[in-house]
């Protein structure tokens, strides 16, 4: 990380509602603060990169929503409106894809891979490791290759969740991948209903033991 040779990252706050900017900065600080950075230059640049990503996502989704609103008000036929809305959705997806990898690349100029992982987990509320650890705890007999596959899918889910437009949408992304994982485990011969029941029993027994 050649921090000293890099140009400072400017906050993309021009022509934005000051209250909205303040909200995004506060949200971003909560995530960046987890890194416990001592270099103010690194801290400020990482903070601005994260805040700017939130701004960019908001711009992308606002553009889609504005397009859909115009389409809805237009005199187009039902079929033409559907096509126009689909085009707006595709344009949104293309822009998300174009900008997705730049976020990690920009952070990599100032942070380590491990630190970037912390940021990604912060943006997605730590769902990756919570889900992974819960699955391993629920099914202690999982094989190593099964654990690896589950982790790979959850990391993939996190990449999509990073670009989701709201907390609910982020959780929806993980929900879809949890369904994929459950189908995978069922095909591997695991009785998930039974595994879950036994897991709840172990948790209950542990809680009782701790109260003694």
Describe it:
With 212 residues, this protein is mainly α. It folds into two domains: 3-111, no CATH class; 124-211. The chain is built from eight helices and no strands. The chain has helices spanning 18-32, 40-73, 78-108, 113-123, 127-138, 144-162, 167-187, 192-211. α2 (40-73) runs antiparallel to α3. The longest helix is centred in the first third of the chain and has 34 residues, at 40-73.
Q: Indicate the radius of gyration in whole angstroms.
A: 21 Å
Low-pLDDT ranges: none
Report the biggest beta sheet as strand number plus sense, adding barrel if it closes: none
End-to-end separation in angstroms reads 52 Å
- Average of the residue pLDDT scores: 95
Write the layout of secondary structure elements.
Elements: H1 18-32, H2 40-73, H3 78-108, H4 113-123, H5 127-138, H6 144-162, H7 167-187, H8 192-211
List the defining traits of the structure above.
single chain, mainly alpha, 212 residues, 0% strand, globular
